Amino acid sequence: MTVRTLISQVTGQENLNFLLTNRVPRRWLTLFVGRLSKVRNPIVRETSIAIWKLFSDLDLSEARKSRFDSLHDCFTRELKEGARSVDPDPNVLTSPCDGIIGACGQVTDGMVLQAKGFPYPVLDLVGDPALAERYRHGTYVTLRLTSSMYHRFHAPADLCVEKVTYISGDTWNVNPIALKRIERLFCKNERAAIECRLERTGQLLTLVPVAAILVASIRLRFIDVTLHLKYQGPNRIDCNARVAKGAEMGWFEHGSTIIVFAPPGMTLCAQWKTGDTIRMGQRLLNLCAPHP
Questions:
Q1: Which of 37, 48, 95, 256 is labelled catalytic?
Q2: Catalytic-residue membership of 256
Q3: Catalytic residue among 48, 70, 128, 154
Q4: CA angle 37, 43, 48 (to 5 degrees)
Q5: pTM score over 0.90
Q6: Has 291 been annotated as catalytic?
Q7: Is 106:138 a contact under the CB 8 Å cutoff?
Q8: What pLDDT is stored for residue 10 in this prediction?
Q9: CA distances from 206 to 9, 79, 138, 158 (A)
Q10: What are phi and psi of 248, to 5 degrees?
């Protein structure tokens, strides 16, 4: 039996997985790993990446670089030119990231699901009653990034970022095991609501990157700050940043989840269902005309 097989069997046991990834000093561990990941010492770098490979199916063949300065440099890696293609159809919104499709569908009276039997209010997630009301009967898609995935996210359409609201919080793991056990988990974790205006229709699209254990750091191209556990504010950051479809918007310093909120009438493209793996740039939502 290989080391990786043994690790997979141990961590595959739900109770043990939950204890190992949640019943630990999450904030301290996240800050420690964040600091360790940026150490440029070759021994620390190579050891860290080797351990990471033991616990995941890490594939660096698409990475732009073949050598990395640190674990952090590897985690936030850029891809080779042409590694992802962006669907040019103006009638679809593309996936902002690589990910696994989680709970998705129509928002029902302001409520969505994080997992079967675990609903949560959009208001608790975004913290703004006016913004939550916009999606009272809208559409949502949850995209979960695993640790080995590409961790940069991109514009799903030509858009203008109007506002970012940062909400400090915890760092629970966001894997399916935790989502089935911790109510309103996304609403507890550190996150940012990125409000975007679609240039083609004028409708409001909101992306909510949610941090997690070892992952509490979000960097956005259009604001000159890193949003993380030590960030002191402001909570609301006004923007006026135009981003072309497929252009990079930012990245997780250590990866997690993005929840997409779209206006009423938009629907998930027919080929997708919960559990499917999607890549950045693939069609995700069918665009609809704005309501009169």
A1: 256
A2: yes
A3: 154
A4: 40
A5: no
A6: no
A7: yes
A8: 42
A9: 38, 25, 11, 13
A10: -70, 135
The one-letter amino acid code at 165 reads T
**Single-letter amino acid code for the residue at 92:** V
Contact 191, 211 (CB under 8 A): yes
Of 265, 159, 168, nearest to 206 by C-alpha is: 159
d(CA 166, CA 169): 10
List 48, 72, 87, 98, catalytic entry:
98
Answer yes or no: are the C-beta atoms of 21 and 213 closer than 8 Å: yes
List the structure tokens of 176: 């399916």
Per-residue HEC secondary structure of the chain comes to CCHHHHHHHHHCCHHHHHHHHHCCCHHHHHHHHHHHHCCCCHHHHHHHHHHHHHHCCCCCCCECCCCCCCHHHHHCCCECCCCCCCCCCCCEEECCCCEEEEEEEECECCEEEEECCEEEEHHHHHCCHHHHHHCCCCEEEEEECCCCCCCEEECCCCEEEEEEEEECCECCCCCHHHHCCCCCHHHHECEEEEEEEECCCCCEEEEEEECCCCCCEEEECCCCCEEECCCCCCCEEEEEEEECCCCEEEEECCCCEEEEEECCCCEECCCCCCCCEECCCCEEEECCCCCC
Q: Is 151 a catalytic residue?
A: no
In whole angstroms, give the CA distance from residue 96 to residue 283: 10
156 CA to centre of own chain: 13
Instruction: Walk along the chain (292 residues) in steps of 10 and give the mean pLDDT of each run.
Output: 45 49 52 68 85 82 91 87 95 96 95 90 96 96 91 96 89 77 87 95 95 70 72 79 96 81 94 95 88 54
Two tokens at 145?
């990034």
Cβ(209)–Cβ(153) below 8 Å: yes
Q: CB–CB of 281/95 below 8 Å?
A: yes
